[in-house]
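Input for the complex:
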Amino acid sequence: MLVVMRAHATEQEIAGVCERIQSLGFRAHVMPGAERAAIGITGNHGPVPRSEFEDLPGVAEAIPVSKPYKLVSREVKSDDTVVNVAGVLVGGDELALCAGPCSVESREQILASARAVKSAGAKLLRGGAYKPRTSPYAFQGLGEEGLRYLAEAREETGLGIVTEAIDVEVFDLVEEHADCIQIGARNMQNFSLLRRAGRARKPVLLKRGMSNTLEEFLMAAEYILSEGNYQVIMCERGVRTFADHTRNTLDLSVVPAVQRLSHLPIIVDPSHGTGKRDKVHPMALAAVAAGASGLIVEVHPNPEKALSDGFQSLYPQQFQELADDCRAISDLLKSRRLAAV
Ligand code: PEP
Ligand code: MN
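Predicted:
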């Protein structure tokens, strides 16, 4: 159920609706909109009678939500959500570029990466301190030490930090250091982790699971929003198919599909999406052309020596070229949109 307020409903009227929702034992989610606020209801296990709300002051209408996901849906919020990551607006007018190594390997490596991606125009630095690896014998990340190096890189360069929380155990520590908490593909349906992310005070980057449908992807985001964190960035990072010329198949059609159904911004990871360095640049261009709000790209100062995902990591010079080309496409699309209005 969604309670849509009148255009000039007061704070008090909104609070009145929230009180009524809470008195019924449900949770109220106020979604401010460009035109008018709407209030989503969660926690109900059956239909909620409209009559409970329609007579309250400031209410325009109460409408049932037809989709299984509610808060992520455009039915609940029609205008695009812009997520603010340390001052970088993801889903706004500018293409948001996030780049850096797969793993934080050393202080020198992450500082060199941060300087390189910053000079190419990235505003956010990625790098895992905790790594979800297929093999228990592979490099698992530097843990807290890695988080400290990321914080140092932020201090020196001003870049916002995106880093992964692989489980509930490390979540507090990651939340303390990160500007945006990544939930990895392997954890997209780790529901206790999603709930914890929903109680975080930082934005969340939610990567699509490698075998998950669009609906499952949206429902995973719904878990986060249902706990009160509305700052979620969706991320397509490739899915498993029969194709074996790439590590994954980058499903770019999910970009417009998410945008149609949800107000949340979506970015693309062409690095994991292809797994091959030479495929990253063309697929990044395609992602921007398809309307992605940003990119997350693996870049390493010395990919041959990388402790994880070296094959798909760009050399800094290659990232510079990618960033220049992607911005050119983004600017072109923006100027055509402006000319059309
Ligand atoms: C990563 O970003 O390095 C990573 C492990 O990504 P994914 O969860 O998409 O595999
Ligand atoms: Mn990686």
